[in-house]
Each structure stands twice: as C-alpha cells, then as structure tokens.
Design a protein that fits this description.
Helices cover 68% and strands 1% of the residues. The chain contains 19 helices and two strands. Helix 8 packs across helix 15.
Length: 430
C-alpha cells in the first residue's frame, strides 16, 4: 500500500513538471486552485466526498454533508458580495473538498491504528478520483502540445469496414434534437458521477466491516485513466467532428478540418496520410476511454439490484450513442475501448485472486487482440475498407471473442454455492 502511494505521488509530481514544461496547469495545481476558486465540477467533488463517507458512521456523514453545504453557502455569499462571477465551472463544490481535506487532518491528528488507516484510505480514494480527472485534463493538453500530426484519416478509412457508424449515429442524434442531444450530453459529462453511484453500492459495508473490498470499480476507473493516455500518445486522433468539419454539434475543426463532411457525407475512400492539426484539440480518441469507463460501469453493476443493472445498461448504451453521435469517436475506437477495459478488468481480478493459468491466458489474449487492432488500423486501413464484408465481421468477432473469453473465465472464478446436506432418514419408532 505504501509503495503504491509513493508511486502514485511520484507520477502526479512528474506529470505536474511535464505540464509546467508545456505551460499548462498540472493536476496538483488544478486541484489546489479549487480550494478557493470555483471548481470545474462541483458534482464530481460531492461524489468524491460521498465515496469518502463510506468509512464514516451515519452521524458523521450527516455532519460532513452539513459542513460541506454550509461552506459552499459561505463561498456563494462571498462571491455575490464581491461580484465574483463564476464563468468556468460550478459555483459549488469547494465545501466538499474542504471536508475531504479536513477528514485527512482529523485522521492524522485524532485517529490511531486501524481507524486512522481506514479514514486515510477513504480520503485517498476520494482524492484519487478527483486527481484522476485532473490528471486526464493535463494529459489531454500534453497530447495536443506534443503530437502535431494526427492519424484520423487512417481510422476514417478503417471505419468503412463498419459502415461509418459515427456518420450514421450523428444523423440520428441530430434528428432527435433538442431532447436527444441534451440527454446524451448529460450522460457523457457525468460519467464519473455514475461510477461513484456503483462504487457506493460496492463499498456500502465498509463502515460496518471496517475494511475495503479487495476489488471495486474505482480501481478499474483509475487504471483506465492511467494507461489510456499513453495509447493517445502512440496513436493520436482528434475525432470525426474535428477532422471532418463542423458537423451538427460543437465548433468542429474549423480551417484545420480536412473537409466539412460530418455527419452528412461519409469520407471518401482514399489513401490515408497523417495530417497536421492545432495544438489545442486533445488527441483522445484511440481507444475510446469513455467506452471503456462505461463498459466498466456495466460490468460492475451486474451484481447490484435491478435498478443498478438497468442504470449500468442505460449508461453504456447512452455513452456509446454520445461518443458516436457527437462525432467524438469512430466506430473502431469503441471496439478497441471494449477490448482495452476487459483486459484491464481481467488483470485486476487476476491480481486480486492470485495469478493462475486462466488469468494469464485471458490477459495475454486481450493484449494480443488490442495490439492487433491498433496495428491493423494503422497499416491495413485500405485493405479493411476495400474488403469491408470480411474485415467488418472480423473486427466484431475479435471483440466478441474477448467478451466471451472474459465471461467464460470469470464465471469459473466465482465461488461455487455449496448445497446444504440433507439429513439422512431415520427409522421410525414403533
């Protein structure tokens, strides 16, 4: 635990230094600002505080919530008195961050032994969720600064094998305006909050048992956010709405766009090339981490009550619709995102239960399929588009094979229910 904490802190410091080198705010600076300034997402801060409160008693939870709301009211009044406008972010959320930091101080100064460790774990988990969001923001800025060329033409060409789903879904979402785009935008933006709801269910017994479960959704979320941006650096892509025009939503790529085609006209089938792009737009498409996170939510909601299973399914379907329908991703990004998260989930679960042959084979197969997808997108896009009736089904089958392998393997890992022994019949007394 201590080694993981030191490694995480070292990673944040290194990313902070790298961000400063490119004149962009790092994750530590961004988080420190929200102690005073309006936070980027007040919902995320309150969701993080809720995650921390799983270690508290009900009385302590009510005190924490009341304190957070009271601090936020003071901040709102001060901003109103001094006419400080909140132009970028939410007017609330500072109180939740203050409560989280206050609990860290209480853990160090007022708790001892296992109680101190448990409270610090709760604080650390909540801060890691927030820091993960800040880390992602810093990574995205770094990808734009360090990757001047993008490979969108390669993915757009490979996407012919799937029938250009982003163009199709983009037109469907536009047809449902304004209700459809508003619903999908909410789902897309509040993905982390949905994850906290599932995580709260998984961690509901922490206060009573005084310990965390060995595996839960937050672990998967953080690992996805840690590894995903590394793939962004290897395979920089901005997305169809930026590479192929203004489209129906957002500002699009402007004069950086190759053509104004999305979502009305599918891109022509021509030999792809890397192309220059601005140093502002994040290269955050390959793989689709929103798809990966939504898939993780779906997986972890399966053991919950019916309402959580329904919510997990709804969030996955809506996220897929948003990623394609807003022009943020190509179809091939989503396939890679599913394979990516299943491989991570398999590795985390194998690490939890102890590595064995089945876990090693599953993770190795996932890594192999993921690497094969990236290589085919980069070096065989024309062949995939030319022979779409072969390559399209092969892409789907590759993804399904990883899904099926995950389901089959993890099913054998579930503890078997032991049937109760029936008492042997006794002879009747006569």
């Amino acid at each position: 635990m201590a080694t993981a904490g030191v490694a995480t802190l070292g990673f944040f410091i290194a990313l902070e230094i790298a961000a400063r080198h490119y004149d962009v705010p790092g994750p530590i600076t961004s988080q420190a600002r929200e102690v005073i300034f309006a936070p980027k997402s007040g919902f995320l801060l309150y969701a993080s505080m809720a995650l921390m409160m799983v270690v508290l008693t009900w009385r302590q939870r009510f005190i924490a919530i009341g304190t957070a709301i009271g601090i936020d009211v003071v901040f709102v009044l001060v901003r109103w008195v001094f006419d400080i406008r909140t132009t970028d972010g939410h007017p609330f959320g500072n109180g939740a961050l203050w409560v989280i930091l206050g609990c860290a101080v209480i853990a160090v100064t007022r708790r001892t032994g296992r109680e101190r460790v448990l409270l610090l774990k709760g604080v650390g988990l909540s801060l890691l969720l927030v820091a993960g969001r800040k880390t992602g923001d810093a990574w995205l800025l770094i990808t734009a600064k360090t990757r001047p060329t993008v490979l969108d033409q390669y993915l757009a060409t490979a996407d012919h094998a799937l029938g250009n789903p982003s163009w199709l879904v983009g037109r469907l979402v536009r047809a449902t305006s304004p209700i459809g785009p508003h619903v999908l935008d909410f789902v897309y933006v509040q993905l982390a909050v949905a994850a906290v709801v599932i995580a709260l269910y998984q961690l509901r017994n922490v206060a009573a048992e005084r310990r965390f479960p060995s595996h839960h959704l937050v672990r998967t979320f953080l690992v996805i956010g840690l590894l995903g941006p590394g793939i962004y650096m290897i395979f920089p892509v901005v997305g169809p709405i930026f590479a192929y025009g203004t489209g129906a939503f957002g500002t699009g790529g402007g004069h950086w766009a190759l053509a104004n085609l999305w979502p009305d006209v599918p891109p022509p089938l021509t030999t792809p090339h890397a192309m220059l792009y601005d140093q502002i737009t994040p290269r955050n498409c390959m793989p689709s981490l929103h798809t990966a996170w939504a898939t993780a939510i779906f997986i972890h909601s399966r053991k919950g009550p019916r309402i959580l299973r329904f919510a997990g399914t709804f969030w996955l379907i809506s996220t897929l619709g948003a990623t394609l329908g807003f022009g943020y991703h190509y179809g091939v990004d989503l396939i890679a995102g599913v394979v990516f998260v299943l491989t991570i989930e398999a590795a985390l679960r194998s690490q939890e239960r102890g590595w064995d042959r089945s876990g090693i084979l599953l993770v190795t197969y996932g890594v192999t399929v993921f690497a094969a997808l990236l290589l085919s997108y980069r070096y065989l896009p024309m062949e995939m588009a030319t022979y779409r009736w072969v390559s399209g089904p092969l892409l789907i089958l590759a993804m399904i094979s990883v899904i099926q392998g995950y389901v089959w393997t993890t099913r054998t890992w579930e503890p078997k229910a032991v049937a109760a022994r029936q008492p042997e019949p006794q002879p009747e007394l006569v």
